[in-house]
Write a structure and sequence with these properties.
Blueprint lengths: L4 H5 L6 H14 L9 H13 L7 H10 L11 H13 L5 H13 L10 H10 L7 H14 L5 H17 L13 H21 L1
Helix pairs in contact: 3-4, 3-7, 4-6, 4-7, 5-6, 9-10
Amino acid sequence: MTVQFEDFAALTEDSPTARTEWAALVDAWGEPHRRYHDLAHLAAVLGVAGELAGHAADPTAVALAAWYHDVVYDPTATDNEEVSAQRALAGLRGLVPDERLAEVARLVRLTAGHDPGDDDADGAVLCDADLAVLAAPPQAYAGYASAVREEYGHLDDATFTAGRIAVLESLLDLPRLYRTPTAQPWEPAARANLAAELQLLRARVDSA
């Protein structure tokens, strides 16, 4: 799946303003420092969100949130989700109703912790789509983990490993990684991948 203007326009409108915004999004997702959080990731999240759309209360808001959830991605920052939400508020103003715009921003912020409430259908779909990579076959998961390490190339191994261990532990501590009925069967594979990476990283720490 590639990201096309027609896909974005179907969520907003077909106008010069929408085309300008779509081009800006593609430029942002195509920044050279991105190794995992890139256009391929955007396309993947949009694809899974589409597959899970039947579980959403507002599938359009979910799809728009997918377009914006990592539109700002600075590996040295800790507020990417908030800045991305603000970017959505600015970029979509006038292109979608205010109520939907607020929902898009809320969903983007939710991806900071991937822990939607039990009654949050839209949040469940977006978070499941964003975390779908965790349930990939082991070789594909290893490629994902390697790409994330490249994005954090400014960190030495010890610092990155400690941070990555914390991320993996926080994910494994979630009561459920996947919330929608369609995605729930992915849970065992995702937890196995996370546990395997965590074991590898802990072994590196122990041998250092």
